[in-house]
Amino acid sequence: MVLDLFLYFIVYSFMGWVMETIFASINQRKFINRGFLIGPLTPIYGFGAILIIQSTRWIDNILIDSYISTLMSIFISTLLVTILEFITGFTLERVFSTKWWDYSKNALNLKGYICLKYSLLWGVLAFLLIQVIHPFIVRFIYLIPISVKGYIAALLLLCLLTDTYKSVINTLNLRNTIINYSDLSIAKYKKMIIKYKRIVLVFPRLLTLNEGIVNRHVRSILDDRINKIKIQIKNRFQN
């Protein structure tokens, strides 16, 4: 049971990453590795899916009518995942001193962490998960032998913990670089921004940690680096 839940968490974290990455890449017209982690996982979707799965099981055991049970499952799931999103946004801001997303411009939002629009979207995703996606995933996970599940889960857990540790350290380093930019040389600052450019491009709100950062042309640093790479590639083909 625990192994299955963990594998569900990984599967839905990956699916969430794919969805977020496709959406962000289309909007920015280039590939964006959307997500806090380096690897292709967005844990908030994994945790959200587990909440939906477990709450649905609990409601199904209480209610007999399938129609009412489904409606209650979607409602409770939407509520729980919205609370999860609020807690996640609040915690990330306290740790990294900046909002990782901001719904302040959307109607009926709460401190910019959650809003009605995205809560309703969570409800749609909960419905699709319960009615369409999860039954298929259950059958897929069931086919994996228990002994093999243990090895797969152990390997994935190790990768997840390593990735989480490295991603947190990288983000804190970038945060300290941005906050203490006046103490760094231009060369050192450029080196750090380029080193952590993935985080800057995915979460540009980190740049609001210090308004003076605009004067150091973070975007220009990244664009200059990208242009140099393009020129190098072009010269190779011409030669």
Keywords:
2 strands; mainly alpha; two-stranded antiparallel sheet; 2 domains; 239 residues; single chain
Describe the model:
The chain is mostly helical and 239 residues long. It has two domains: 2-158, no CATH class; 167-238, no CATH class. Helix content is 74%, strand content 2%. The chain has a two-stranded antiparallel sheet. Strand 1 and strand 2 form a beta hairpin. The longest helix has 34 residues, at 146-179. It is globular, with a radius of gyration of 21 Å.
Q: Poorly predicted ranges (pLDDT <50, ≥5 residues)?
A: 212-216
User: Which percent band covers the strand fraction?
Assistant: under 5%
Average of pLDDT: 84
Q: How big is the Rg?
A: 21 Å
Order of helices and strands: HHHEEHHHHH
Task: Specify the biggest β-sheet.
Answer: 2 strands, antiparallel
Strand arrangement within the widest β-sheet reads 1-2
Brief account:
The protein is mainly α and 239 residues long. The protein folds into two domains: 2-158, no CATH class; 167-238, no CATH class. The protein has helices at 2-28, 43-62, 66-96, 116-142, 146-179, 186-195, 197-202, 218-238; strands at residues 109-110, 114-115.
Write the layout of secondary structure elements.
Blueprint: H1 2-28, H2 43-62, H3 66-96, E1 109-110, E2 114-115, H4 116-142, H5 146-179, H6 186-195, H7 197-202, H8 218-238
Antiparallel strand pairs: 1-2
Helix pairs in contact: 1-2, 1-4, 1-5, 2-3, 2-4, 3-4
